[in-house]
Amino acid sequence: MHNIAIIPGDGTGPEVVAEGLKVLEAVSKMYNFEYKTKTFNCGGERYLKTKETINDAEIEELKTFDAIYLGAIGHPDVKPGILEEGILLKTRFALDQYINLRPVTLYNKEFCPLKDKNEEDVDFVVVRENSEGLYKGMGEFRNKGTLDEVAIQTSYNTRKGVERCVRYAFEYTRKRNKRKNLTLCGKTNVLTYAFDLWQRVFDEVAKEYTDITTDYAHVDATTMWFVKNPEWFDVIVTDNMFGDIITDLGAMVQGGMGIAAGGNINPEGVSMFEPIGGSAPKYTRKNVINPLAAICALSMLLENIKEEKAAQAVEAAVISIVKTKLKSLGAGKMGYSTAEIGDLVIDHLK
Ligand code: IPM
Ligand code: MN
Fold this sequence. Notes:
Helices cover 40% and strands 22% of the residues. The protein is α/β, with parallel strands linked by helices. The longest helix has 18 residues, at 13-30. The protein is globular, with a radius of gyration of 20 Å. Bound molecules: 3-isopropylmalic acid and manganese (II) ion.
């Protein structure tokens, strides 16, 4: 029995999660596994009523599940940062989900904004460190509000934190078994403390993985290669901030936020899976948002709870409809409603 926590969240989150849960129900019957869910009410609506984001009891309870399925966090009436920090980052940190795994896969070249690139050219995975760096919230104001104000924001990188991320990336590259190439994305020419550590750890761990070839790319150059030569990449490992930035570009290269999913992974604990686009308030309750990113997140969740066959079946169904049915991956342009896409995925499950 799999025990799955659901956080539908804000905006279009509940709609896309509902489609994911329809698919989960269908695939559980097909592959004979049982699960139960519990929904957690976290997000802007609750915050506006109670000033509460997620409380400690809920965090503790989340630790008892097999996985967490998240819709989206972000509300137009709540000041930016409160819900993101209070719910999403709090959960990532409290559950020590130190990896943010973000596959960038093009399922249909018609939806790729890059000229002359095919499905096989856009097929890589970003392993983003998810617990440290600039996201640690370290820093200070000096002389706040005066003309002499200084705002300091520190990137915090521990040897242990960097090493566990780099090791995960090497292991993942081996298991993925494609080009067996791992690129470190950094900024060694400017961030001479943080990426000096990253580079040293990367080179040291690489010695244990002689079956894997390695590369290094500065983050600015990485964004250039994503557009010019995405086929160069297999797996990329990077810090929290750079990982955040390059995976939005990655999402566009794979066809947009409508299809981009990610996992906040604690390899020794409870992981959380989410579509990486936001809560898209303007599309809320219009039945136009693309639920495929959430359905791809479900596929990652299934793999994480060791329902690999079900995970593959969901991904295959997504590929099939993206190749043969959808007019676009963008909200309102798919040629189908949100709920119809969920039904289509279920029809294409084998
Ligand atoms: C993401 C998001 C979050 C992040 C925000 C909402 C805090 O952009 O998951 O990429 O910066 O990590
Ligand atoms: Mn982001």
